[in-house]
Amino acid sequence: MRQQTNKTENGRANPETINWDPQIYNYAERTGNLKAEAVGVVSGEKHFPVFEGRMVFKPLTKSKPLSTPLFAYAEVFWSWVIDAYFIPAPQYQLALCRGYEAECGKYYDYGTVSPMIYEEGEHLLNLLEFFRAYPDDKVQIDDYLNYCQMFYDYTEILEADYFQKNREIAENLAMQILISVLKGDQNYHYENIAFVCNASGQILRLAPMIDHEFSTCFMFPDNLSRHNYWFGELQRSIEGKSVRPEEYKDFPNEKERRLMEKSATCLYRNLIYIKEHYPEVTATFLENVSRLKRDLLQKRESFFIQKAKDYPDYANSDAYLIGKARYKDHDEEKAAAYEKQYGNPWSLPFKGGDFRIKDADGDGKLTDKDRVVKGTQQPKTTFGLTLSAGWKNFDLSVFMQGVTGTNRYFSRDVVGSFIGDTSHPSTNWLDAWTPENTNAEWPRLFLEENSISSPQRVNSSFWCMNTNYLRIKNVNLGYTLPKSWTNKLGIANAKIYYTGENLFTFDSLPFNADPESPSGNLDVYPISRSHSFGINVTF
Prior knowledge:
By secondary structure, the chain is an alpha+beta fold. Helices cover about 25% and strands about 25% of the residues.
């Protein structure tokens, strides 16, 4: 998988480059079908082809509205990072399986391929099945059935009798939980945690980590600022800093706010519990995180996602491949004429007030070849400025930080929609297109599933916005008490201070969203504003 590696002091491989070359298979040449998830954990009727060498093809599905090739790139990237820096992990590769889509219309014929995670004569028992068969009063299994809801509190699992009696397996699980937090995995759930069993059902070992497609929601591999942000959140929880009251009060959607609070609280509980009960695991994890962070600083290019030859268009933080919004027609007649002229690959009718997609290659048709690069989330320039001043006993320092040359694609979670009580549409929709307001800034109002103007249905340049910003990152104001006062009190020095973090942000976004957020759909922790007052006394 890796083209070049070298060994570090702990014996694990230090990556130089990731192999982004896709493997090519033909569905007709499969050696068998696996009636389960591609790596064999989630039970079900899905049948994924197995090829020579027990390699399993995992396609991207059409049933997930946000399925993009990015999921496959995330699988390759994270399997490589986990194996290189933390614990052995099966290596995913980009793959094309010719003829698979024709056989299974629900899936695409591109995705990933990975080795099966168990040997002949073995099988898997996922954690859901385990606790169904061997119930434990400490584990409320039904609380975990609705997975993909950010992080879970896994402390009760580690308290279960089995893990208390099997220390090595518990340590392996603790390490997997820490890694899932590091990569912001929203999909590390009961059915992606499994035991490898022999033919008689005896548990042999914990299965390796698999299924990384949702891990890039928090950390794009080629954006250093986002890495540093998430590393900081991770360190904060490990240091014992719990979620502050009202920390997420600024979230306008109550359901979203509760979800963020739950995620942050569970993250904190997991890390504190593992730190207390598995200190060696925590120490090893933090050591490897430091090594990963060092390499991200020194070898950034080695972690960039690269467009694979002959693989479908991809999306990552380096460049969006999207259709460029051209204009909005003023009436249904013009909309119908446009559709007749250029065609419509989205199976949604063009209507007055909808975006029109530019025929970028000039072939007279709207196809995937009309996608163009529209900006990058990777800043062209990152800058900072520190100002300091002093007057008599007062001192003041201000640190400002910002970026230029950035863009981000925003989803309905930011701009809002019209799909129910929790849709929280942005006030920008007050200037939506209508027959009486044809020069509006925003397209017509629509239900989520019936318009190509929806950011969830068609990737349009309209929703890819400039995210340059300048942020007042840190303000420190202090007052040193006069010596005439401190001498009377019997102290050498005393200073009263105020510290403010992330006080103000200046950007050009038309709505209230953090331009520094690693995601365009508000599914990550926002950068918090904080105020601190204190006094430093030296005796």
